[in-house]
Specification:
Layout lengths: L23 H6 L4 H4 L14 H8 L7 H11 L20 H7 L4 H5 L16 H11 L5 H4 L4
């Protein structure tokens, strides 16, 4: 597999179509924060997506006439999750933990994901390739040993 053909080498600043349009800017302006919608559940490898029930906590009354909110409500009623398209990712052979970065190292979400709170449409703003990760590790004094991030099995 040639590195540049990998689905993980995605260009920055190219938005992916989502099941419904979602403005992080509008939701952050209402007091929501990253961890409130994207919980890091055990074992901490990934930040999750909000459950439709969480969204419907507000949207049962707010913008309920919107066709996008009606699509959300239908998914909630059918107990079918919206299939959000991942914007960021790393290959399976790379060990990555949101918990170790966010909770242990206290790295803010914007460090890797960019200024999401200011965006109406989300696109990958920063690369998640080995070079960018190694630069960050070097800057913070974290290990850059191969087996620190790569599965040695």
């Amino acid at each position: 597999l040639h590195l540049y053909r990998s689905p993980f080498v995605t260009p920055v600043n190219v938005a992916k179509e989502q099941p419904i349009p979602f403005s992080h800017k509008a939701h952050v302006s209402q007091g929501l924060n990253c961890a409130g919608c994207h919980p890091i559940r055990d074992p901490g490898y990934q930040a999750g997506y909000p459950k439709e029930a969480f969204c419907m906590g507000c949207h049962a009354a707010i913008k309920k006439e919107s066709p996008h909110i009606q699509k959300l409500a239908a998914a909630f009623k059918a107990k079918q999750p919206l299939l959000w398209v991942k914007v960021y990712g790393v290959p399976d052979y790379v060990w990555f933990s949101h918990a170790s970065h966010v909770q242990d190292a206290r790295i803010g979400c914007a460090e890797c994901h960019g200024r999401v709170a200011e965006r109406d449409v989300l696109a990958k703003e920063k690369p998640t390739n080995m070079h960018s990760c190694m630069q960050c590790h070097a800057k913070r004094g974290a290990s850059n040993g191969c087996d620190f991030c790569h599965n040695s099995q």
